[in-house]
Amino acid sequence: MIATPYLLYLGHSNDEIGIKTSRGLAVFRPDICVGEFRHDDCGLTLNLPRMDFAQAHDAGARTLVLGIANAGGRLGSDLVDDALAAMEAGLDIASGLHQRLKDEPRLVAAAARLGRTLHDVRDPRPDIPVGTGKRRAGKRLLTVGTDCSVGKMYTTLCLTRGLQARGVEADFRATGQTGILIAGDGVPLDAVVADFISGAVEQISPDRHDGGWDLIEGQGSLFHPSFAGVSTGLIHGAQPDALVLCHDPMRQTMRGLPHYAPPSLEDCLEANLRAARLTNPDVRAVGIALNTSAMEDGPAKELCARTADRMGLPCCDPYRMGVDAMVDLLIAMDAPAPATETI
């Protein structure tokens, strides 16, 4: 287990999307975040107290979370130096970067000398099975996207809380490093060998018999040439009864691929439904989630209303506007069909 509370690392970052792990923890688990660490050239903040490592330890922090993403997910020299200083101050280190902490000799040596623990959140379990596609008991929702980093995790967490607020049993199933740190469990899907992706999702969302929902965090996009393979395996393993399509209306090109334009909502939703029917022929769409964080209130609400009319589905910014209409549909899916009168 990763010791809490956390100190969230921003370092030298100036890319809003690049700090999404730290930001996700600050938004959804503020109860276990005591502060943020950033250098003077970092233009971003989580609106948490700014602390150095010794101050954070004195304030109760037990783990520095390297909640940033850089090109290739590498441990740069500055980041390693900061992690070493944090361990000297008494903190463990947790990281979701592709390059593992355990593969950096200086960090391993310091951890051994100081009695600190290195947590590589992107290490999958060793016992992942191959997926079977067998029908499982229970209800499942999967968030899918037109692109990467469009709000799938936020939407899944908001829907989980929305169902719980209505008295429905609901569990968030994390498939990325941020979600795992928030939930305390899950699978780092982009680190799983391709043949085992669907099996990994089946493993974290097994049969459930309590009438509740598993809400499974989506990854990537079927329309992103770099990551569509992960998205496909996730869809098949999730065996979703319901899909929510997530989209950033300000996005002009696919993340990291300026030569690719995002798909239309119609094309993307139909492609995801088609793929999902392999393991659940009865899957249905229950909503469109727009990330309107870069828009003013009025235009954001107008866009959601137009999109709802266009798609024939509830549409909102889940974090900003709530998810009541989507939750209504999910609860209706559990309701028994009305009895028919016989003459």
Topology:
Layout: E1 6-11, H1 20-28, E2 33-38, H2 53-58, E3 63-66, H3 77-88, E4 92-95, H4 105-114, E5 118-120, E6 139-145, H5 152-165, E7 170-173, H6 177-183, H7 197-204, E8 213-216, H8 228-238, E9 242-247, H9 265-276, E10 284-290, H10 297-311, E11 315-316, H11 318-321, H12 324-334
Parallel strand pairs: 1-2, 1-3, 3-4, 4-5, 6-8, 6-9, 7-8, 9-10, 10-11
Question: Any key phrases for this structure?
Answer:
343 residues, alpha/beta, Rossmann fold, 2 domains, 6-stranded parallel β-sheet, 5-stranded parallel β-sheet, 12 helices, 35% helix, DgcN-like_N, P-loop_NTPase, EBNA-1 nuclear protein, DgcN-like
How does this structure look, described?
By secondary structure, the chain is α/β, with parallel strands linked by helices. The chain has two domains: 6-120, NAD(P)-binding Rossmann-like Domain (Rossmann fold, 3-Layer(aba) Sandwich); 139-334, P-loop containing nucleotide triphosphate hydrolases (Rossmann fold, 3-Layer(aba) Sandwich). It contains twelve helices and eleven strands. The strands form two sheets. The protein has a six-stranded parallel sheet with strand order 7-8-6-9-10-11, sandwiched between helices. Strands 2-1-3-4-5 form a five-stranded parallel sheet, with helices on both faces. α4 (105-114) links the parallel β4 (92-95) and β5 (118-120). α3 runs parallel beside α4 (105-114). The longest helix is centred in the C-terminal third of the chain and has 15 residues, at 297-311. It starts with 5 loop residues before the first strand and ends in a 9-residue tail after the last helix.
